[in-house]
Design goal:
Helix content is 46%, strand content 5%. The chain has 5 helices and 2 strands; from the N terminus they run αββαααα. The chain has a two-stranded antiparallel ribbon with strand order 1-2. Strand 1 and strand 2 form a beta hairpin. The longest helix is centred in the middle third of the chain and has 27 residues. The termini are far apart.
């Protein structure tokens, strides 16, 4: 969609007043305002046209700053508006004043700012070389283990020590040792021994 050049509005109003209402003066005060300082501010028709031109220029810059807002046809229309305003300022006596000169300058600023914003936007949106990006591996998600049920702790087993063997007194041990030594040892008669303690002889006696 082709954008409408907003700076055409104050220029068209000036042309309508200059051609259709020749008795209207651009320098006569239309509104008088008393400031806090006590000074009286007189607002003329030229001041109102210039203020409207500045505000519309601001809107044009905002429109041109949006991505893809202005196309080549929009810049061409801005150039045509500026060329027509400059031609009227130079060729027609009714337009040879400071008010129309400033309106023409605003139209020039609109055209130059649109070109500058378009160049800047093309430089920013220039496609860059694609950089391969490795996809990150999904991290293993550990499932939380259920916590063991907490209950009352079992009672600790009671260990009873084994009874120690009784230790015999030292006197009884000594008496048993003496009795063992004083007791006579039994003699064992071997069948191989004859009475008298002589071993048997295999040879018969003569």
């Amino acid at each position: 969609m082709v954008g409408f050049p907003l700076l055409l509005v104050p220029l068209a109003v000036y042309n309508i007043i200059a051609f259709l209402m020749p008795g209207v003066s651009f320098t006569d005060p239309l509104i008088r305002l008393t400031l806090l300082s006590g000074e009286q501010w007189q607002i003329t028709l030229s001041d109102m046209l210039l203020a409207a031109g500045v505000l519309l220029l601001l809107l044009e810059v905002i429109k041109g700053a949006r991505p893809g807002a202005k196309y080549l046809t929009d810049h061409l229309l801005s150039l045509i508006v500026f060329g027509a305003a400059a031609a009227e300022f130079v060729l027609w006596p009714k337009f040879g004043n400071s008010t129309y000169c400033l309106l023409t300058l605003l139209a020039l600023v609109d055209f130059i700012s649109g070109i500058a914003l378009r160049t800047r936007r093309r430089a920013v949106v220039a496609p860059a070389a694609p950089v391969p990006v490795s996809k990150p591996q999904p991290a293993a998600v550990e499932t939380p283990r259920p916590a063991p049920a907490v209950g009352p702790a079992p009672p600790a087993p009671v260990v009873t020590p084994a009874p120690a063997a009784p230790v015999p007194p030292a006197t009884s041990v000594a008496e048993s040792v003496l009795l063992d030594q004083s007791a006579p040892k039994p003699t064992v008669n071997s069948p191989d021994l004859q009475p008298g303690g002589q071993p048997p002889s295999d040879t018969p006696q003569r």
